[in-house]
Amino acid sequence: MSQGCKWVVQQLRQRSTAKRGAGSVGVCFVDVDNALIESLRSVQKAISRDKPCFELCGYGTLIQQDLKP
Predict the structure, then answer these.
(1) For the chain, what are the domain ranges?
(2) Which of 63, 56, 68 lies closest to 9, judged by CA?
(3) Its pTM surpasses 0.85
(4) Confidence check: pLDDT of 48 > 70
């Protein structure tokens, strides 16, 4: 369910697939996943140093009209 201008990921994927097709939307979501993974890898050492604490990471991703994140 959307709230304001934010969409649940499943809603975005369904709407994008209906408009652009499953193939191009699938590539877009793989690119988003890779960006998130690489950003977490870049700070992995800093996060894992503090054993008694944990980190919550939130991400906002802009997707261009050509489905490039």
Answers:
(1) 1-69
(2) 63
(3) no
(4) no
